[in-house]
Design a protein that fits this description.
Distance between the termini: 15 Å
Keywords: Cell membrane, Ion channel, Ion transport, Membrane, Metal-binding, Sodium, Transmembrane, Transmembrane helix, Transport
Number of strands: 0
GO molecular function: fluoride channel activity; metal ion binding
Radius of gyration: 17 Å
Subcellular location: Cell membrane
Family: Belongs to the fluoride channel Fluc/FEX (TC 1.A.43) family.
Main location: membrane
Length: 139
């Protein structure tokens, strides 16, 4: 698959889009994604007593699947991408939390977990982008 066969959520500079409506799509998706991340993180945290940041790993990995599926799916156009990709998935996933939690593992002397967190995040993230992209092209 080449980059030319994948959707992007960046409209053509010559398109006649309503920027106000585009902002509304991003806003609604972002609000929903942030609440979904918070809720899922709380739910996972209540069921896990591990020092490893499993909730962030799971949420970011799920977001990788989402973005692969959304951008590869030829039926999802710009308004849907603004809502689901830029808005929802952008707010749902969090690089800053991942970075902070990795730093906290280092500070706590959990060096193996601090090493495994980025490796698992990148490996699982890439694998789920591939799976999502594959499923998205089947739609």
């Amino acid at each position: 698959m080449t980059s030319q066969s994948i959707n992007t959520c960046t409209p053509s500079p010559h398109s006649r889009r309503n920027i106000g409506l585009d902002i509304l799509y991003v806003f609604c998706g972002g609000a929903t994604g942030a609440v979904a991340r918070f809720s899922l993180s709380q739910w996972i945290g209540a069921r896990s007593n591990a020092s490893f940041p499993i909730a962030t790993l799971f949420i970011n990995s799920l977001g990788c699947f989402f973005i692969g599926f959304l951008l590869a799916n030829p039926y999802i156009r710009t308004p849907g991408l603004l809502l689901l990709d830029v808005g929802f998935t952008g707010a749902f996933t969090t690089f800053s939390t991942f970075s902070y939690e990795t730093w906290r593992l280092i500070e706590q002397g959990e060096y193996l977990a601090a090493l495994l967190n980025p490796l698992a995040s990148i490996g699982l993230g890439l694998a789920l982008v591939v799976i999502g992209t594959s499923l998205g092209t089947l739609a």
